[in-house]
């Protein structure tokens, strides 16, 4: 037996979207702006909806509009079901190889490591359409992306989750321009200088990695409180640019400075030491566990590229 509800034709999706936006924003103008439509276009869709349903959905209140009881009920239902439909559509699209993989990663890693390797990635995975976005270091989330690259410490004794791929160990070390290094060491670059030469020097640091100098100095047998912090920077990429022009001694993961060290723009007299952090790729999963079909292929490529990176120092 067919239910009465199934006999009632549904309004157009365009009209429902316009009305849901009106309920959410409280005004036709703001609803129109959110949908990139004109005021008149939204008003016509709402009038069309009222005519089709045979009930008033909005009424005038002063110089504005307010929803009637029926309008509020419809707006709530439209918001719930349109949201659910959008989530399902996004999850279904994610299962398509043709859909782009949106990857967020720290701006410094994007500029200094990833972009120089994009041609190799295209050759290895020609079917992957990759959209890269720079996320703020240390706080990027999975909202609106298929994956996030980040340096992070994993909980002690706890294996990574099913959607977290460990790509490589973080190794950090001090770096400085060759001109600055030659000036301070008198040209003696054959053997690493005593790391205590850095005591009393103003060390460049960054807000996104506040523990970097402490992690390194403890591994050198130097108490972190003996270090002197100099100029601070918001992002690691700014710190490295300041290091390149000789403003002081910086500190960074080897992945980000390997090209500068190889080309002689920077030197790393003390090499790099492993920290408790790893570079990980966290993959987004839909409500039913759906992930982009090329997510694991991308993770495998990243791990292989990082493994082939030369060990500096």
TrEMBL record:
Similarity comment: Belongs to the LysR transcriptional regulatory family.
Residue intervals of the HTH lysR-type domain: 11-68
The protein's name in its UniProt record: LysR family transcriptional regulator
Pfam families to which the protein is assigned, alphabetical: HTH_1, LysR_substrate
Organism of origin: Halomonas litopenaei
Keywords (A to Z) from UniProt: DNA-binding, Transcription, Transcription regulation
Keyword Transcription: yes
